[in-house]
Amino acid sequence: MSELEKPLKAELTVEYPFTRTTGEVIGAFMTGLREKRLFGIKRPDGSILVPPLEYDPVTSEPLTEMVEVAQSGVVETWTWVDPPRPQSPWDAPHALALIRLDGSDTSMLHAVIVGSPLEMKTGMRVTAQWKEDRVGHIADLEGFVQEIEKADS
Amino acid sequence: MTDPNSLPAALSEKVEIPESISGLEPVRSVRSPIRLVYDFVPSPPVQQYLRSYSKKKILGHRSPVDGAVFVPPRGVDPRHGVLIDESVELSDRGHVGNFCVTHLPIPGRDDLDIPYVSAWIHLDGANVGFLGLVAGCENDEVHIGMRVQAVWKEEDELGNTAENILYWKPTGEPSVPVEKAGNRAWEHTNE
Questions:
Q1: What domain range is A123 assigned to?
Q2: N or C end of chain A, less CB within 10 A?
Q3: How many domains, chain A?
């Protein structure tokens, strides 16, 4: 066999079709997504975590009081994704941003769907855009789009 | 310190579900598939092993320590940590060392009709087994020690792959006694 023979190479795939249980808190958040609603959870000091956690991140106490928050908020920071990775839920270039929804004290990671990074700005206001068919998954939220100011406001 | 026997707090505390969704069927699970696609480049001995499959040959490696033959060839005797460079051409006949009847489909392997039998095939002249499918008989006829031979793909379908062997079928020869089948007779090369 020739030393210079081209080495054999094969594309292999490792794949696990996991289904994980959500528990009550994350389950309620997911149920909310299906119903086009966003829920957080209240900490003992009254601050709100979105997405909700089962335990207080500081004291580890269980958290139980779920509350609805607004569908609009502020972009706290962002990065531009171009091109999206093959398994990304988004086909087109988009921003990934930390979005603090009105009524929440933490920010959640999701896409901001705009045409170019020139349309992105830290501090900009965005609002949720939902998919038609929703199943109770974070991808029910298509992403966030620039909030259009109401004419009378 | 938290008592390890106590229930997780999330199970002992009642979560207040907001009224707007409290009457609805709750989401209880979420699919989160994991997928990794990568390029595999085999080591030189395995390259040679795979290429020889296209000539319907199965290569093993003979240990310089005691002559034990490993298949597939990995270039080392893992027991002694010594390099091996002596290739051996093995027969495409052997026996079933151990086997398993599988009744559940494997995601991504739609080509396997359940129930199917996978087995450690111990080739004549080899000291270890390697995995293969056993077919060509009823599943409940498969047994430890059963003599089998390779069923190869058609000549024009052969490639540099172990998939050239479609499955292993019974030869009808007398079985290897259970106590000598598979690795049960490790000290002796299976003749």
A1: 23-146
A2: C
A3: 1
